[in-house]
Structures are given as structure tokens and as C-alpha cells.
Input
Amino acid sequence: MNTPLVPVILCGGSGTRLWPLSREGYPKQFLRLSGETSMLQQTLQRLAGIEALAPALLVCNESSRFIVAEQLREIGLNNARMVLEPMRRNTAPAIATAALQAMENGDDPILLVLPSDHVILDTPAFHRAINLARDAAEQGNLLTFGITPTGPETGYGYIRAEGGAAGQVQRILEFVEKPALAQAEKYIASGDYFWNSGMFLFRASRYLEELERFQPAVLVACRAAVADAKSDLDFIRLDKDAYAASPDIAVDYAVMERTSHAATIALDAGWNDIGSWAAVFDVAKKDANNNSAQGDVLMQDCNDCLVHGNSRLVTAIGMRNTVIVETADAVLVMDADQAQHTKTLVAQLIHKERSEATMHREVFRPWGSYDSIGNGERFQVKRITVKPGAKLSLQMHHHRAEHWIVVSGTAQITNGDKEYLLTENQSTYIPLGVVHSLANPGKLPLELIEIQSGSYLGEDDIVRFEDRYGRA
Output
């Protein structure tokens, strides 16, 4: 078992099923839903102890690259590589680009492909399944991990496997789409079916061989996208035009359902894909009335409820089987049995062009974040946080002026041809049309209040002259 194993972490996805907490601008893999670290961080941390483990490859959206980088920094992971997708093209192309990157120095490692947003409670069982699957992958098989079902779940796809003893690699006979309840009950009763986890293990070259056989257009596009990729800070930026030419297709449809070398190994390790608020409730800690509360929450005479507060006191009286999720700009209240339908609700919000569908009030940037805490006719107020050592771009605005008031930390200001420092309770004024910048030279976060005033306050009223983060 000396062949290196490269974890390939898929960090895309829009996270609409956990709205309003998860949104396209900050999807669920970056949230702390089942512990003190995020789903992505837990995915990486549970790999510790695997034999011949190589640095991870993370495939993520260009828009979330700095969120990923910051979460890696928080857990002290500094050797991972990040491949940036210029647009979403589903899992088959994402894995192909990772395989090509993993083989760039003539290596042919085994790839462990993992979504970044799953919960696995029994890490030793997970490692044992990986070790068994590695042996089969060395022989040319393409493995997926079949989850031992705990009931007739209709939210998952299923795998029908050839009979075999527990812990053995089994040949896959059929992939099945998400079934109706009656069909799911038949699957469970037969004992021949597993839930499709969306986790895979195979040698990089074997995946590319099968992809070339069944979906050659994907491989052609991905080869070109990797060949013309550019290194940008710590990121590998795929060529946009080449990647756009790839078909948008999942790895199941592109390869796994068509290859004659597909196999599975049963995984009984407390797996959950956290695909709905009902799934969050399943893994959450509960009180004597089977309620789960997170944040500033007070419940009275409630049973079987999930209440998630983020920015204010949330109270509930006499509720049963209810999910309540509060954020700074939206509240969701629903019967827990309707948890699979949040995606439809988000689609309605998108149709109505509501910003709450995709973005939080707090927006994350490579230098920190800003929170729009108030607005009205010709004014907007933001709370700005700048990380230690970070700097905003040298910029100017055509339609607005800005007042900055330092709440805590030290601000290094560029204001036209002047440069100066501001500390707590000091302020400055940036006139309309003046070139300016803001930096944090200190070792603690810089917090300030920004008051914008002018005829137009949109985020697109910005001209960047210099930017260390490679933005236009």
C-alpha cells in the first residue's frame, strides 16, 4: 500500500437546501453545522492517519477561493493545492482536472474523491473502508462507497451490488435514481442496495482511461483547461474558454454507470450528507423534548423542533416538528416533513430577483468581510472587518463619498496623496472621486464603520488601480 493517495475535495455546490443559512455566496461546506469546525475543515481533518497520504487537491469555484484558503489557514493546512473552476461543469470534469493535476509530474496516485460537506461520525470505520478499497483500486477497479442504509430514504440514489460478505468489495450491478417510498422500501427489504454516497476511490489513470472511453469530449476540454492553466497566488486557475467547452455531466453518468469495472464497499460509519434541515436535525444534539437549539433561542412547550438563531433572540411556543432558521436578513419557518422543498423556495426567490436567494448580508472578501447594517435614500452603513496584514485595493468611486470610523484596531489610510494611521474612535473622510485604500498593519482584526453617501451606492461603482488579490 505504498501508492500515494491524493484526496480530491469537491468544494462546489450552491447549498440551496439549507437556505437561509447556506447560500450560493457562502454554501454549507463552509458552515459550522455539526461542531466547532466547518464541514470542509472536518472533511480534511478526518483524513489524518491514512497511510501514504499526499497533499490534498481542492476543486472550488473561483468566487469562493479566498473562503477556502482562509478555512485551510484556520486548521493549519498549508500544503493543499486549489484548482479554480471558472464555471460549474459538474463532478466528471472537476475530477478530471484534479486527476490531470495529480499526474503532472509523471505520478499515478490513487484519488480519494470526497464532497466537502458530508458528516462521518466513525472515522476509524471510514479509514478501514478506504484501505480495503485501495487494494481493489490497485487492480484497476473504480470504487464508490455504498452507505449501509438505515431506512427507506427517498432523498438518495441507490446502488445495487452483487452479493458478498460484509467488508468485501462488491461488483456494482446497477445505479438507481432517487426512488419513491414504496420502491425504497423494496430496496431495503432485498438487502442488495446501498445509498450512493458520492464518494469515490480509483487510480488517476484508470479514471481518465474510462472517461476517454465514454465521454471523450470531457477529457479533451479538461486537458486543454489544465494545459493552459495559470498559477495565481496559491491557486491553479483553469483556462476559462477550454473548460467552458466541457459537457456538464456528473461522474456517475459519465463513468461509473457505464464502466464494467465499477465496484463498491459497504460503509457503515455514521454518514450523513446534511442535504436538508431534517438531516441537520438528525445529527444535532437534542434536549429531553427532542429539540435542538443553536444560538440565542428560548423554547416553551415545544417538541421535535430545530431552532437555529444567528443574529437575535428567537423564541417559539407550542411548536411541533418545526424548523425555524433565523439569519440577519431572512427567517425560514417550516414543517420538518417539508425539509426537502427549500430548493423550490429558493428558486422562487431567484425568480423574484431577491438578493437573499444567493448572498448573505455579510459578504466575505479576501481581505476580510463587510456587513451592510443599514441603508436608506442616498446612504448606506457597513461594518467592515480587515484581517491582520490585509489590504483593500487602491480604488476610487464615481458616485459616492465615504466616512470611516475606527471601532478597534489600527487602520493605515491612503487618501489621495496623503497616508496616515487611525486608531480607535478616530475617523476620516474620503471625498467622491478620490483614490484611496485601507490596510490593517496590526496583529489584530481591524473593525470600522463605513458610511457611504451619494447618488449611487452599488458594489459595481469601483475602479481598482492596484489589487494584490488578482481581481479586475
User: Anything to note?
Assistant: The chain is about 20% helix and 35% strand.
